[in-house]
């Protein structure tokens, strides 16, 4: 079920295709510091998420955090870690997983902008149990 490029235009913002895709591996570059180990926009402050190591470990299977879009920041341009992935940018999930209907996979409650209660901001729920 390979999905080919459906038109190269309109590739800005979050693409639905990038979400809910299982990412391979267990060690990832730390999203919060972009793998540098140093807090962004700081002068040498050690990243609190990876403790300066530049990488984080997440139990597979994992997906990009829907709530922050994999950035690891609760809001762009802040030094506040995402409360869903805790700054890692990826969250471990349980297979099989389905898109969360309550937030339509974006992990955000429409009204409050808080993490979706049904999926805890991950954008997916376990398909096995409800
Ligand atoms: Zn880091
Ligand atoms: Zn996140
Ligand atoms: Zn949800």
The ordered H/E elements are EEEEEEE
Question: What proportion strand?
Answer: 15-25%
Shape category: flat
Stretches where pLDDT is under 50 for at least 5 consecutive residues are 5-16
Sheet bearing the most strands, described? Answer: 3 strands, antiparallel
Overall average residue pLDDT: 87
How many H/I helical runs? 0
* Strand tally: 7
Structural class: mainly beta
Strand line-up in the sheet with most strands? 1-4-5
Helix content: under 10%
Q: How many whole angstroms does the radius of gyration measure?
A: 15 Å
Please explain how this structure is put together.
The structure is a single chain. This protein is mostly beta strands. Helices cover 0% and strands 15% of the residues. The chain contains no helices and 7 strands. The protein has strands spanning 22-23, 27-29, 55-57, 62-64, 90-92, 97-99, 124-126. The strands form 3 sheets. A 3-stranded antiparallel β-sheet has the order 1-4-5, with no helix packed on it. It is flat, with a radius of gyration of 15 Å. The protein starts with 21 loop residues before the first strand and ends with a strand. 34% of the residues are buried. One zinc ion (ZN) binds next to loops. One zinc ion binds at residues 30, 32-33, 37, 47, 49-50.
Question: What's the SSE blueprint?
Answer:
Elements lengths: L21 E2 L3 E3 L25 E3 L4 E3 L25 E3 L4 E3 L24 E3 L4
Antiparallel strand pairs: 1-4, 2-3, 4-5, 6-7
């Amino acid at each position: 079920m390979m999905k080919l490029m459906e038109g190269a235009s309109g590739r800005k913002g979050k693409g639905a295709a990038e979400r809910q895709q299982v990412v391979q591996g267990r060690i990832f570059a730390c999203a919060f510091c972009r793998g540098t180990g140093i807090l962004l926009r700081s002068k040498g402050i050690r990243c609190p998420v990876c403790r300066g190591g530049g990488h984080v470990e997440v139990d597979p299977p994992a997906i990009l955090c829907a709530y922050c879009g994999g950035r690891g920041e609760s809001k762009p341009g802040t030094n506040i870690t995402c409360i869903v992935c805790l700054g890692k940018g990826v969250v471990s999930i349980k297979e099989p997983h389905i898109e969360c209907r309550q937030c339509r996979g974006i992990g955000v409650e429409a009204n409050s902008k808080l993490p979706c209660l049904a999926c805890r901001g991950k954008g997916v729920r376990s398909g096995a149990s409800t």
